[in-house]
Amino acid sequence: MANQKLYKGSLQTIILKLLDQNDKMYGYEITQKVKELTKGGLKITEGALYPALHKLEADGMLTVEVAKVGNRLRKYYKLTEHGTKETANKLLEMETFLKTMQQLVNPKMSLE
């Protein structure tokens, strides 16, 4: 993606969707999954990811599980019940936004 700034408003939705699909994930795993799914087109930096994860946790949408992997601790993030409900809301908002943008940018190619 040429303009990384475009995804910043979508970062929470991306995280919620991935956790909804994968039960629980750790930070680096999230960055690698996004990179894989977008074939390298979108790279989430730690500086963007961890504040978003902490905000979602503070808002009651994520819980954190700490597990020892080898000789280090790893934080796994998992959706709460509230987070699961909010994921559905955020995905609906995203779908509506994308349809609206498509109508504005290229009305002939509308998603409708």
Automatic annotation (TrEMBL):
Domain of life: Bacteria
Pfam families: PadR
UniProt-listed InterPro entries: Metal_resp_DNA-bind_regulator (IPR052509), Tscrpt_reg_PadR_N (IPR005149), WH-like_DNA-bd_sf (IPR036388), WH_DNA-bd_sf (IPR036390)
Name this polypeptide is given: PadR family transcriptional regulator
Residue intervals of the Transcription regulator PadR N-terminal domain: 15-88
Organism in which the protein naturally occurs: Polaribacter pacificus
